[in-house]
Design brief:
Strand order of the largest sheet: 3-4-5-6-7
Oligomer: single chain
Number of domains: 1
Radius of gyration: 31 Å
Order of helices and strands: EEHHHHEEEEE
Strand content: 15-25%
Number of strands: 7
Distance between the termini: 83 Å
Helix content: 40-55%
Number of helices: 4
Largest sheet: 5 strands, antiparallel
């Protein structure tokens, strides 16, 4: 037995159904506001974690760059300059460090050469805006030191 309005397995559309169907298309303003609120809440929770993770990654990259600078200085001193250390630019020109590090800026840090000479060298890595929280220092001893302010130097505590 078939019901009125049904033919086979499909239902005939009547004029009574038209207003109901058109009212169902799209989203209401309330539904959109709820979705936007949920997305904003998730973003507000995730953003601080992202910033902290980015700073930690930048600091790790800066530490690895300081290690690379120590190795490059020793290679330069032994193979290229008869016992003298190089500036950051000289290390870049000799191909011992990549162009990004050799230019002095990499992964949210600015690298500076301090006192290159016959028997000493030192590099300082300063965080750029939101690059990291700590400064790093390394000299010919190969010990990487850290501080959270501009007092970074040979007397700063070593990296743990």
């Amino acid at each position: 037995m078939q019901r009125a309005g049904w033919v086979g397995n499909s239902r005939h559309t009547t004029e009574r159904d038209a207003p109901r169907r058109s009212a169902r298309r799209g989203f209401t303003v309330l539904e959109l506001l709820i979705v936007i609120t949920v997305i904003a809440t998730i973003a507000s929770i995730a953003l601080p974690n992202y910033v902290g993770a980015k700073k930690a990654a930048n600091e790790t990259s800066a530490i690895n760059s300081m290690r690379a600078l120590v190795a490059a200085q020793e290679n330069y001193r032994v193979a290229k300059s008869a016992g003298k250390y190089a500036t950051l630019e000289q290390l870049k020109d000799s191909g011992l460090v990549n162009s990004a590090l050799g230019s002095g800026a990499m992964s949210g840090y600015t690298f500076m050469t301090v006192t290159p000479g016959a028997s000493t060298f030192a590099f300082i890595a300063y965080p750029q805006a939101s690059g990291g929280d700590r400064l790093f220092y390394v000299d010919q001893t190969g010990v990487i030191r850290t501080a959270e302010d501009d007092t970074i130097g040979a007397a700063s505590p070593p990296l743990k």
